[in-house]
Amino acid sequence: MRGSGFSPATLEALVLVESSGESDAIGPAGAAGLTQLSPAAAQRAGLRVRLARSLALTRRIERARRARTARQLRRWRSRYDQRFAPARELRATVRTLVAARKVLGRDDLALAAYGAGVANVAHAVAVSGDEAPSYAQLYFGSGPDRHSNVWAWLGLRGDVGRDFYWKVLAAERVLRTYRHSVRALETESFLQARKNSAEEVLHPSWRTPQFRTPKAIARAWREHVLRAIPLDVSQTHIAVSRFLGQEAHALGRSRRLYRGLRPAALDVLLYIGAQVHALSGAPRLLLTSAVRDDRYQRLLTRINAAATPNYSMHTTGYAFDISRTYSSDRQAAAFQFVLDRLSAVGAIAYIHELAAIHIAVASDAPAKLRLLAAA
Q1: Cβ(292)–Cβ(314) under 8 Å?
Q2: 24-28 — which CB contacts under 8 Å span 24+ positions?
Q3: Do 259 and 312 lie in a common domain?
Q4: Dmax over Cα atoms in the chain, in whole Å?
Q5: Within a domain: residue 79?
Q6: What is the DSSP code string of 227-245?
Q7: Is residue 129 part of a domain?
Q8: Are residues 227 and 352 located together in one domain of the fold?
């Protein structure tokens, strides 16, 4: 690592992504070790890989009944397959990254190529028209709607390869947080596990204002904390379900009370409508839920199994639901692309529910939308 230009923190993050630190890890395609080098990549990096002998020893390790026997077999295997010798594989991984950087010219592209493939990233750079783009420029500057050939080259190994670079950066952040404050990491881990998305990381219950009653929502309207969802479908490409706010009558309120969102959430909703329409040509998506209060939420739990009796992001005004009924496969694919793009910049967290996509919006989402527009 010394003198390579790649930091120990980056290599450690790569290990976390590839194997979670398990030196015996074996991938489905034959990759192995801490950094999951394939046999061919390991040999190119100067490691000894006698695959048949390695596989035979692996089978013996799996059948070993005594821990001492298994340890001895692992030592033998590491001689025939040096991917199972952690220090050797780590040095080989650095050599692999350095070789990729010689081809691509940048550290970030070399790291991205570890997941996406050097040739694929090189082709993406070549067709992008830029001499030395960053991976962020390649990723956010391409998609099905623009520079689709760049997007296609980055994705030849699938979304796992295309998103590999971001996963390594995320792992590096996790490890850095662990070193600086275990308690902070424990808190974030707790919030991540609370729901099927990171929405409570965006808006923890203890610091996020919530609407407890219909009167609180009415006051938010008067104080312009909430904005009305536009009803012109031809402009927004978002249709409001006739069932949205249907429990308002049980609270003695008008449905209109629940047809709003906080400004940041509304900006994201309108962005989704415009982008999905531009990508797919489909006329509209169907909005099924917006802001609620605690009383409304409790009523909803009686008739909707998906409604949580606990902290609901809808009671903050930062969440909305969009129906999973699409006009075409093209619209569904476009919607998924937009969701993933917004999630990649931390503008949203989303959950695939049975009938809808539940979307929670970060309070700083408008700034992130501007970043996407500038890409």
Answers
A1: yes
A2: 24/74, 24/84, 26/58
A3: yes
A4: 76
A5: yes
A6: EEPP--HHHH-EEEPTTTT
A7: yes
A8: yes
| pLDDT, tens digit (0-9, with 9 covering 90-100), for 18-36 | 999 999 999 988 999 999 9
CATH no. for residue 319?
3.30.1380
111, part of any domain: yes
227 and 367 in a single domain? The answer is yes
pLDDT digits (tens, 9 = 90+) for 181-190: 999 999 999 9
Instruction: Assess whether 218 and 363 both reside in one domain.
Output: yes
Amino acid residing at 289: S
pTM recorded for the entire structure: 0.87
The stretches of 141-284 forming alpha helices (DSSP H) are: 148-154, 158-162, 164-180, 182-194, 199-202, 214-222, 233-236, 263-280
CATH number at residue 126: 1.10.530
Q: Which of 125, 115, 90 is nearest to 170 (CA)?
A: 115
- Using alpha carbons only, what angle is made at residue 63 by residues 58 and 69, rounded to the nearest 5 degrees? 80
Distance separating alpha carbons of residues 166 and 171, to the nearest angstrom: 9
Cα separations (Å) of 322 from 28, 272, 373?
A: 36, 10, 23
Structural domain span for residue 300: 198-374
Q: How many residues does the chain have?
A: 375
Q: Distance between CA atoms of 182 and 62, rounded to whole angstroms?
A: 35
Q: Give the alpha-carbon dihedral of 47, 52, 55, 59, to 10 degrees.
A: -150
